[in-house]
Amino acid sequence: MKTPTQAPSHRRLRCEAGRLQGMNTNELIVRCLKCGQKNRIPENHLNDSPRCGRCGASLDELFIQCLTCHKLNRIPEDRLYDLPLCGNCGSQLYDDYVLDVSSESFEEDVLKQSGLVLLCCYTPDCVLCRKAMPVLKKLAPRYLGNVRLVRLDIRKHAEIASHYAVERTPTYLLFRDGIHVDTIVGVTAIAEIEKKLRKIAAGAQNTL
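Below the sequence we write its predicted structure tokens.
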């Protein structure tokens, strides 16, 4: 199954209009989507995945546009892996799989794609690769619409691996507008991959 690639997603915190009178100027008010409680969050803790003081729910939000009806859906971060449905038309907002590419589809699915593509090179019997697959699945909802996630079995498509000097698996190849811009070798944490993606995305914006 293909991971949708057109729906823009934006991680946001829903803040009350401005800062409330009389409150600390370094705090923001964030309303919990689950129980409605207003929470005071210091600005220097906004990136710490804050939780509601009443019910403990995550205060982070992800906005995902439905590919069927184009309705924007607000999804709490702690529900990202529940494969949520569109609240308007009931369509599934994204698939839980990355796209498998081959030598035949590589040009179309990677080189001709605008924006960012993250390609995981793997072999089915590689123990470390089995740890890499869950990393891709966790990345899918976070970067839906902004990064195309694909994987390639280098045993079946050795010519691609040879062209990009892939000698170990798993190896992640990052492309921007069809150009290979970075390589990550070995099992790595999501945070490291995200750091690379943000750096490459920022570089793309600076060239506009």
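Residues 190-206 form the longest helix (17 residues).
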